[in-house]
Amino acid sequence: MIIATGTASGKSLSYLVPAVSSVLDGRTILYLTPTKALAADQLRALEELDVPELRAATFDGDTSFEERAWVRKHANYVLTNPDMLHRTMLPRHAQWSAFWRRLAMVVVDECHGYRGVFGSHVAQILRRLRRICARYGSNPVFLLSSATASEPGTFATRLTGLQMAEVTTDASPRGATTFALWEPPLTDLRGEGGAPLRRPAAAESADLLADLVAADVRTLAFVRSRRAAESVALTARARLQDLVIGSDAPVDLPDRVAAYRAGYLAEDRRGLERAFRSGGLLGLATTNALELGVDVSGLDAVLIAGWPGTRASLWQQAGRAGRAGQDALAVLIARDDPLDTYLVHHPEALFGRPVEAIVLDPANPYVLGPHLCAAAAEIPLTHDDLEIFGQSAKEVLAGLVADGLLRERATGWFWTSRERATDLADIRGAGGPPVQVVEMSTGRLLGTVDEPSAHTSVHTGAVYVHQGETFLVAELDLEAGVALVEAGAPDYTTFARDVTDISVLESLHSHPLGRGELHFGSVEVTRQVVSYIRRRAQSSELMGDEPLDLPPRTLRTRAVWWTLPASATAPLAQDGLDLGGAAHAAEHASIGLLPLFATCDRWDIGGVSTELHPDTGLLTVFVYDGHEGGAGFAERGYARALDWLTATREAIASCECERGCPSCIQSPKCGNGNEPLDKTGALRLLAVLLSDSP
Fold this sequence. Notes:
single chain; alpha/beta; six-stranded parallel sheet; 21 helices; 34% helix; 25% strand; globular
């Protein structure tokens, strides 16, 4: 069953009551959540029930070795996350045999967070879990919960592989929420090509947070990064300190603002949560670590610094305020970004619209393959198991055997390597061996980055942030799989730039679109990171563009692309329009707007545009999934192409700049330095493409 009702509607009670009843009957419960904060909050709620037979415990990265042993032997309500299930609980299933035998229910809370490639990995982890349960003779009920899942039954079936009943009626009381759309002003600062820059959303958020705290309004400010959380909190505290001087404001006012993010010690996070619930803290700047159902009742206002990626996340974050039934305020503060610009000028795209359908593809062979290996390592795979993993499992298994990863015998498929099969799947990335991030002076391992992301996130010269500490990457050694870093305090951020070539492998679907044609299919993308830019942290002002020497990477993925014939483009060229610059600008803007129609981030997708592509012989604009095998984003763009491209044109037209800026057609990822770009040309090109469209 999936329960898809609003925030604070009582979803927790719907599974707590039967879960506790099962525990009293000697059964066990497994609770899955995307974040540690939500697990800790649920544990607190369980402990407040004061049921002697209930032995609830979290099992995550913060759990000590001694505690883990106790949880395995004694806990009957285990709160964990997909990462721990994937890497620890399922591979060591024999140690949990008593727990699996008595498992009555699997609660998958805030399930809308499992989307894209990450969601596809979680879907396969849940299938492995079902197989382990069957091995020990249990058949647990799967109960999913979300405040913002579109088409909940369909999504839940894709996630779990099980038929789902859905509950969507919500009769819970709720106060009114005033929702403001806030666009920061243009500044005198200039970026590439002399384009004007807006005041950063984080700076606006800090000012608004200080104003609200000074007015005794308990406020949560959502920002996009750990570093931004610290920056917003520090800036708000400084503003409040200035207010205290020479006024009758309480002297402790600055101390009532703090930052909250992943990377803090568990006891520090719990302390912040308690202080915010009690009112000891009035303002908290946070990453999306507090987006999901943590109980912060009594909250008055929410600030959202930049579009959070989906309507689901927007309403999830806004829903943090007003949970006790009182009226609330929510403010979306636009970043210097095409999508943010579009939304503040087109509120109808937000209000009165359903949340997005959640995109995931469990059958992606680059996701399914590693999990079939992991399943075979847990218990050898048999022909009867293939139904759990889907119709494409047999074909993928044949490839794994051919690659020497599995051995096929008459009784099934076996994992024979001494390596850990779970290492093949980086569920938060796209698979492949990770690159280790090591501090040069101490040899300390700070963390890992999946190999595809290493070129853009830990290249030589990159700014790398780990648990609040800032490092500069001294060297990226791809052969050794190591990025060497040293501590630093730069006043800038870095963005990698790449150049891309794309070839069409197969057009799977196509249809006319205006005077052109729309396609969806398989492509091969060759990307090479060629440089990185430095932008001043506080103002986003461009400080420089530094060259890099990294090898190209090849990606087989899915793309949506549109073409225009010469008969449509020739009149534009005769008018002196730069067709290449127009297509380039349309490509950038369409990448910026696709997240409104597919549950992705602009960093999950890429694009290529050309006046004459060798495979099509026409002016062509591609937008592709940035994950091996595809992630469903381009397919969603194909399905919503008319709405998507119409919104793209409107976003460009509504921007108040003259020639193009980061709010409409410039991209921080562009390997060509955002040249050439033609804003007027993009508007005319899209008008031709969309003309006569139904």
